[in-house]
Amino acid sequence: xxxxxxxxxxxxxxxxxxxxxxxxxxxxxxxxxxxxxxxxxxxxxxxxxxxxxxxxxxxxxxxxxxxxxxxxxxxxxxxxxxxxxxxxxxxxxxxxxxxxxxxxxxxxxxxxxxxxxxxxxxxxxxxxxxxxxxxxxxxxxxxxxxxxxxxxxxxxxxxxxxxxxxxxxxxxxxxxxxxxxxxxxxxxxxxxxxxxxxxxxxxxxxxxxxxxxxxxxxxxxxxxxxxxxxxxxxxxxxxxxxxxxxxxxxxxxxxxxxxxxxxxxxxxxxxxxxxxxxxxxxxxxxxxxxxxxxxxxxxxxxxxxxxxxxxxxxxxxxxxxxxxxxxxxxxxxxxxxxxxxxxxxxxxxxxxxxxxxxxxxxxxxxxxxxxxxxxxxxxxxxxxxxxxxxxxxxxxxxxxxxxxxxxxxxxxxxxx
Amino acid sequence: xxxxxxxxxxxxxxxxxxxxxxxxxxxxxxxxxxxxxxxxxxxxxxxxxxxxxxxxxxxxxxxxxxxxxxxxxxxxxxxxxxxxxxxxxxxxxxxxxxxxxxxxxxxxxxxxxxxxxxxxxxxxxxxxxxxxxxxxxxxxxxxxxxxxxxxxxxxxxxxxxxxxxxxxxxxxxxxxxxxx
Amino acid sequence: xxxxxxxxxxxxxxxxxxxxxxxxxxxxxxxxxxxxxxxxxxxxxxxxxxxxxxxxxxxxxxxxxxxxxxxxxxxxxxxxxxxxxxxxxxxxxxxxxxxxxxxxxxxxxxxxxxxxxxxxxxxxxxxxxxxxxxxxxxxxxxxxxxxxxxxxxxxxxxxxxxxxxxxxxxxxxxxxxxxxxxxxxxxxxxxxxxxxxxxxxxxxxxxxxxxxxxxxxxxxxxxxxxxxxxxxxxxxxxxxxxxxxxxxxxxxxxxxxxxxxxxxxxxxxxxxxxxxxxxxxxxxxxxx
Lengths: 416, 180, 288
Known about the structure:
The structure holds three protein chains of three kinds.
Chain A: E1 5-8, H1 12-23, E2 28-31, E3 46-47, E4 52-53, H2 74-77, E5 81-84, E6 87-95, E7 98-105, H3 120-124, E8 128-129, E9 141-142, H4 149-157, E10 170-176, E11 178-181, E12 186-187, E13 204-206, H5 207-214, E14 235-242, H6 257-271, E15 276-281, H7 291-299, E16 303-314, E17 320-326, E18 331-337, E19 339-344, E20 346-347, H8 352-359, E21 363-364, E22 367-368, E23 380-382, E24 385-387, H9 397-415
Parallel strand pairs in A: 1-2, 1-11, 2-5, 11-24, 13-19, 14-15, 14-19, 15-16
Antiparallel strand pairs in A: 3-4, 6-7, 7-10, 8-9, 12-20, 16-17, 17-18, 21-22, 23-24
Chain B: H1 3-6, E1 18-19, H2 27-32, H3 48-52, H4 63-72, H5 75-79, H6 83-86, H7 92-96, H8 103-116, H9 122-134, H10 143-148, H11 160-169, H12 171-179
Chain C: E1 3-6, H1 11-15, H2 17-29, E2 33-36, H3 45-51, H4 53-70, E3 74-76, H5 79-94, H6 96-108, E4 119-121, H7 122-130, H8 132-137, E5 147-151, H9 154-157, H10 160-163, H11 167-175, E6 180-181, H12 200-216, E7 221-224, H13 227-243, E8 252-254, H14 255-262, H15 280-284
Parallel strand pairs in C: 1-2, 1-3, 3-4, 5-6, 5-7, 7-8
Helix pairs in contact in C: 2-14, 3-4, 4-5, 5-6, 12-13
C-alpha cells in the first residue's frame, strides 16, 4: 500500500491540497500547529476577490451537500484525511518518496469528537475559548496558561466528558511519500519601524488587526473603535509598504497588502458611516483584475496620498497627528486621525528556516523557493516536496487554491 | 526696513504643513456634483494631464496638482489660482486621462465657481462686458473688404439682442454690473 | 443638393471675410446649399463658458433651437463656434436636468431645444456629404506636392466624444488638392489664441513654438479652419521678427482658399491679399 502524503499547514492552500488528494483516493495527513484550522484566512473577515465572508467562500461550492461553506467540508469527515491539530513537525529523515517524519502532538485537552459546543466550559472558565462559531474542528480550545479554578469544574461537569486537563504531549512517527508545505505567511509586527509608533501608541495597528476589529465576531462586534479608549473612529489613515520593499526589512513587495488595504478602506467607507479613510502609499499595486478595487475605493471617497509619513504624534484627546509629505503636491500635510493602520510586510512564518534546512530546500527571502529557479513549476520545492499558498510568498486566496491544485496534480502524476 | 528689523530670528517651524482639518472637504463634492465632475474621484494622480499640458511648466500648480487640491479640499487655493484662467482649453489633458476625468471641463467648472465668488481676471471680464454691450466679440470694421468680396456689409444673421438679453439676466450681467 | 443652416459667428465675418467668401465659392462649386441662419446670437466663446456656463448654454441652445425649426444641420467655419455649439448640443443631450432648465428659458422666447439636428464643421460636411472623390474631380489645378502643415485647432479635435472630428478628415481634404501633408511634432499643440486675454507672452510663445515646429519639418505654408487660430498663427508671425528675431514666412491659408485655388479659382475671388503673410509661395506652386 502506498504511503500517505503529509500536508503541513491547514490554511486555504493546505486544506485545498488535502481535500483534493483525499477525493482522489490518496491518504493524507493534514497537520496544523493551532487547534483551529483555517490559517490566516480565518482572521480576514471578508476575503477578496469576492468580498464573501471567508467562511462561505466559493471554493468548494461544487461539493454535494456542502453549499458554499469550506469548513462544512470533508475536512473532518473525509475518511482519507487524518487531521491533526496542535501538531508540529519535530524532525524529518528518510529519503524522498519515503520520508520519516516525527510529529509533536500537543496535549489533546478537548476531544473534538465529543465536544458539542454546549458552552458550559467557556461560561465557567477563562481558559476555554470558542475561536469562532464555525471553527473546525467543531470544538472549544483550552489554553493552559490561562487556567483557573473554573477549568477543573468544566472538566468535571462537561456533559460529554470531552475535557481532559491532564492530557500530555505525545510523539508520533509517520512514513509519508510526499510532503506538501503549506505553512502560510505571517504579518510582521512593525514595532521595528519606529517612525510609526506601533507597539507604543495603542491606536496604531496592523491590517490584520483591523480585519479582526471589523469582524462582527470580533471583540468590538464589528464596531470601529479606538483601542485606547473605545471611542468611535472617525478618521482612519492607512500606510502602505511598512517593512515591504525595504532593504532594511523585507526587500520584496508583499503583493496583497494593497488590495487588502483597499478592501478595508472600502468596507469602512461604505459600511461605517461618516468614517473618512486616507491611504498613504508609494505605489498602489493592484495587479490583474484588482484594479477594479482601486477604482471603487476612489469612488467611495477614500483619499489617496502619494508620499510618506514624516512623523506621528499622539494628542491628549486620543487622536494622532500624522505629518505626511505629499510628493505629488510637493507639500506637507497634517492629518488628525483616530486610527493609524499599517500595511505591514508579510514575512515567512516562524520556524520556516528550520523546515527549509531540514529538507535542504532553496530559500526565496525566507519563503520556500522552487527547486529549479528557471522552471515554471514554482510549486516543486524538491524531490517529493511541494509548496503552495503563502509558504511560497504572499498570496491571495484564489492563487493559493490554484497552487494547491498544481501540487495535487504533480503528486497524482507521480503515483501513476 | 533696517538691517536689525530683518533679523527676526529663526523661523518658528521649518516645515509648515497644510492642516487638513482647516480645508473644505465639501469642495470635492461641489465639483463632482457638477455635470463634468462625475469622474473626478477616479483620479489616481498618474499626472498624465500634466504630461499632456503644453504650458504646465509655467505654472505653480500643475494640472494633476490642481485635481489633487480639489480632492483634498483646497478650495481657496484652487479658486484664486491664476492657472485655471490660463488653461488653454486645448483638452489634451482630458483626452489623454486614463480614468476619463474631464480635466479641462472641471477647470471650466472651477472658473464658474471662482466667478461666482467674484474672482475673474480683468481681461476676461472685459470680454463679458463686450458681449453684454455689443452683443458680439468682434465687429466688422473694414466693411469695404466684405463688399469687395460681394458679402453683405454686416455680420450675417447676427442678433445682437439675442445674446444681450440672455446675459443680462445670467451671471455675466451681474459680473459686468459689479465691475462698473 | 444638401441644404445646411450656416452659422457664421462674428469672428469670420469681422476678421476673415476671405474665409467666408472662399467657403461660399467652394460650397457652390460642390453643390452645397448654405443658408445663413437668421437672428442667431454670438456663441460667446470659451470665455463665456468660463465665467457663465449657464448663459453660454442658453445662448447656444437658442441658436440650435432656431436652426431646429428648419430641420437642417448647422454648419460653421469657425472652430470656436463649432466647439461651443457642439459642446452645448452634447451637454444638453447628456444632461437632462440642465436641458429642463434651458427649455424653461427657451419657452419664454417661443423656442424649444429638442436635439433633432447636428452641429458640424463645414469641412466635415464637405468631406462626408460630398466626398473626397467628388472633390478630387473638381480639382483642375492641383498643387504640385507643396508641403502643407495642418493646424487643426483644439476645439475641432477635442474632446473627441464631443467633436466627433477625426484628424484624417482634414488630411484627406488637403491630400485631395494635390498638396503634401507635412507631419510635425507639435501638430496637436494649441496655437495660443485662447490665452491671449490673460497672458499674451505665453500666447505668443505657443504660436512661435508651433510655427517653428512646422517650419523645421519642412512646411511651406499652413492651413487652418478657424479664424482665431488663423489670426494667431498669421498675425503673430509679424511680431516674432521683433520679439524673437525669427522670420518664418509661412503663409496661413484657410482651407477653402486652398481648395478654391486647386479648383482653378483666382486669388481675388478668395481674398488672398487679405492674408497677412503674403501667399506668394503657394501661387508659385500652382501647376498648369
